[in-house]
Amino acid sequence: MLNTGDTAFMLVATALVMLMTPGLALFYGGLVRTKNVLGTIMQSFICLGLVSIIWVVYGYSLAFGPDVGGVIGNLKYAFLRGVGLTPGPYASTIPHLLFCAFQLMFAIITPALITGAFAERMKFSAFLVFTALWTTFVYLPLCHWVWGGGWLQKLGALDFAGGTVIHINSGAAALCAALIVGERKGWGREAFHPHNLPMTVLGGGLLWFGWFGFNAGSALSAGNIACLAFFNTQVATGAAALSWVFAEWLYQGKPTTLGVVSGALAGLVAITPAAGFVGPVSSVAIGIIAGILCYGAVILKARIGYDDSLDVVGVHGVGGTWGAIATGLFASVAANPDGANGLFFGNVHQFLIQLLGIIVAIVFSMVVTSLILKLLDSTMGLRLTREEEIQGLDVTQHSEMGYSF
Amino acid sequence: MKKIEAIIKPFKLDEVKEALSELGVKGMTVSDVKGFGRQKGHKEIYRGAEYVVDFIPKVKIELVLDDEILPKVIDTIINSAKTGKIGDGKIFVTTIDEVIRIRTGERGKEAI
Fold first, then answer.
1. Which residue of chain B has the CA closest to A250?
2. Which of A32, A190, A256, A307 is the best mutation test for B, with the most CBs of B within 10 A?
3. Is B51 in Cβ contact with A191 (below 8 Å)?
4. CA A147/CA A157 separation, integer angstroms
């Protein structure tokens, strides 16, 4: 039965998730150097176009079409045949087409997240092909496994709003991308200053705002679980913003603006899989630990020495992994009767399933992402030439400049 | 005729300008510059990565004057720009061969 309240709520939630991608564009745009601001923004924004088309043609069908052996959906919904205005198999109170639109926004932002790993050095043409292939061969299968009736879902892995499908997945892909694309010219010797931190803070604010749609909307109805996810999103994010800032204040002597937005993002990522399964106090604990862990991860990156330029691994990979583990620890049927208990509530089994989900996502994403990147590197080439890299993405790829003073 | 180039702390610009105006100095050129001397740079932190920024923002004042007034102007700049801390800046004095006012074609002292 179609419910108008649920439908209204999900329409708004879908639009909120859409806004996260432009928010991410600004978040990343502010972190790069002046000469790369448009190229960086472009890599996120173009996903709104490219992934939408893939989604209509075959994307939705492969992810959410009737299951084939637990591995992938079939082509029943190709060109959205049969995806109409009556409720579908995934949400019983909203139009099937609305569920499809909501899921599309997730599919758009996931490849956009990866762009932070190879910022300032990838050819736009290669980026487009990479995004199309990556969405097809990494995102769609994993999305099917966790949400579309695939084998991980059947095992009972809990992922409320996409910690595994979106954040662990993009973080693992980002690590491969940073390693295979290689470091930026001058990395480790020159200082790469963020060129516009207020832009990054604005982008971070839009991400936080949009994330209410992402997490609360994942309840798929305007009810008590949406409210729980909404509140948990707020407090976990606040806690992580605070803990990152205090961690860096203690360790490096200054509380920074980039630290507070990075901490907030780490908190948003970590609470994503847990948002509808844990209580508010658990959310605070998840947030506090997320801020400290992710700060530690970005410090460690500099020691290990790979150029994940905008810390996709440190924030999304580590934050997402922590969130999936935390879901296995803090989940409680007292918070959500339709969920499960975690380790802290006596359920070891759930914890082990969560670990399996994490390992599967990391291994699968890394292997297939590496194959795609190697293939593209040996055919069309991934990187700008040295000279183009010095000139920047904006002029060489788009013939534009971000600023003219 | 002499030219003074004074590199000072940016926040001291107003005080220096006021003091020079009182002395009767009629014009100056000011630019934002960056550089370092004994003060060295400052530290910036971005997501855990620490950078030392070598070049510190300063203001450069350029003025051309008659030889007679030079010692007084130098004293005035010193008094108004001084904080006593490292990084107060420097004053360079050079000799000027000729000054020409474009509008009238006047030359030398008259043109200053």
1. B48
2. A256
3. yes
4. 10
Of A105, A110, A125, A122, the C-alpha closest to A173 is A110
pLDDT band with cut points at 50, 70 and 90 for residue A91: very high
Give DSSP secondary structure letters for A90-145: S-TTSBHHHHHHHHHHHHHHHHHHHTTTTTTTB-HHHHHHHHHHHIIIIIHHHHHH
What are the pLDDT digits (tens) for A222-239? Answer: 999 999 999 999 999 999
CB-based contact, A150 to chain B, within 8 Å: no
Q: Show which of residues 172-201 on chain A sit within 8 Å of chain B, judged by CB atoms.
A: 191, 193-194
* Whole-number Å distance between alpha carbons of A152 and A110: 19
User: Residue with structure tokens 């992580």?
Assistant: A240
Q: Helices A280-304 and A224-252, interaxial angle, to 10°? A: 40
Q: Which residues does chain A have within 8 Å of residue B48's beta carbon, measured at their own beta carbons?
A: 248, 252, 295, 298-299, 302
Identify which of A143, A178, A149 has the alpha carbon closest to the alpha carbon of residue A164. A143
Domains of chain A and CATH, by start: 4-398 (1.10.3430.10)
Confirm or reject contact between A255 and chain B (CB < 8 A): no
Measure CA of the first residue to CA of the last residue in chain B; give whole Å: 9
Min Cα separation B44/chain A (Å): 9
**pLDDT score at A303:** 87
Give the containing element (helix H, strand E) for A69. Answer: none
Q: Are A170 and A113 in contact (CB under 8 A)?
A: yes
User: What DSSP string describes A245-279?
Assistant: HHHHHHHHS---HHHHHHHHHHHHHHHTTTTTTS-
A276 in Cβ contact with A225 (< 8 Å): yes
Residue A330 Cα to chain centre, angstroms: 22
For residue A130, the one-letter residue type is F
Cβ–Cβ gap B50/A254 under 8 Å: no
**Residue numbers in B near A262 (CB within 8 A):** 47
Calpha distance B10→B17 (Å, rounded): 12
Chain B contacts of A259, Cβ < 8 Å?
47
pLDDT digits (tens, 9 = 90+) for A368-402: 999 999 999 999 999 999 999 999 999 999 999 99
Any CB–CB contact under 8 A between A34 and chain B? no
- Residue A309: what are its φ and ψ, rounded to 5°? -55, -45
By CA distance, what is A261's nearest residue in B? B47
- Do A302 and B46 make contact, defined as CB atoms within 8 angstroms? no
What kind and span of H or E run contains A66?
none
Angle subtended at Cα A288 by Cα A284 and Cα A293, rounded to the nearest 5 degrees: 145
ipTM over 0.90? The verdict is no
Q: Do residues A38 and A398 lie in contact, with contact meaning Cβ atoms separated by under 8 Å?
A: yes
For the record, the structure tokens of A7 come out as: 């439908």
